[in-house]
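Appendix B. One record, verbatim.
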Amino acid sequence: MKQDEMPVGFAMALAMNPDAMEKFATLGEEQKQKIIAGTHAIKSREEMHRYVDDLVSTKRNETKA
């Protein structure tokens, strides 16, 4: 898999979290690549879900600021 390809586990976790999927879709290409790069160190399904959930909590924190 190339570094810039979306891992299947990440895509599945996004599909299970519509808010995170929406957030990811609104990001610029560079931001998306940084997030995808961060997924390569994730070793478990639970960790991937937490990573995806953090996309939404980051969105909420940005809205509050």
